[in-house]
Amino acid sequence: MNLVFAGTPEFAATALAALLRSRHRVSLVLTQPDRPAGRGLRPAPSPVKRLAAEVGLPLLQPATLRDAGVERTLAETSPDALVVAAYGLLLPRGVLEIPRWGCLNIHASLLPRWRGAAPIPRAILAGDQETGITIMQMDEGLDTGAMLLQRRLPIESGDTAGTLHDKLAALGAQCIVEALDALEAGRLRPIPQPEAGACYAPKIDKAETAVDWARDAAFIDRLVRAFNPQPGATTSVRGTALKLWRAQPVEAERGAPGSVLRADAQGLVVGCGSGALRILELQRAGGRRLPAAEFLKGFPLRPGDRLGT
Prior knowledge:
The protein is of the alpha/beta class.
């Protein structure tokens, strides 16, 4: 197939790399305009732009697709399909109607569960036992199009949003090549999404990152994992802001919510509404991520100290 590819972050770059290794041809790449990044906030290319430039693919970075010139360029490319992966821009009807086989989205959830921008952290936070990839024919709704292919993936007890992202990126790359091959051979038929079980995965709000120590230890563990590597679960102690990066529930211990129960080489154990949480890696404002034992050498905490204050 002759393809146009639209994507921006690393998740999308993994899919683009798989398409470049396949028998299909990518004729044009769309990605978001360069955004400020790093301490200097200098405009930086997206992972998809870097890969496209490396292999010499034609590239467009429009601020919007509601532009007659962009639409004309896409039409002149005559794509059989437009593959979309975490692009970040809405596709208007005019663009959706250009490709012969439509616009195919690589979505990191088992639709209709977790439509929207943040399906990976939402699945972890909700305590889902599995997630997966859905290859979907896009329409004008938010992740509401008919499904072409789904593959399931278990969520392991230690998975963070980062580790699950990498697993799903690899699975999504495999699935889109499989779906294109099967679609071209006439082996796939779109299946409308059921509305039963549909739910929305909004972007993570900063207010959600604050640990409520009155919650049970299992939930707080999921919150820490869901917000690793971005934006990080947050708390404070003695007026100092902290980010928590790795933890594990300790159901056998009990204590007042937010109270330090133990602080030693095995970690920092904090009471929760039910059970306790052993913090294994954390970071103070302006500092580095550190194992708890190393953190405590420079910032001593003792039983009875309270987090969340």
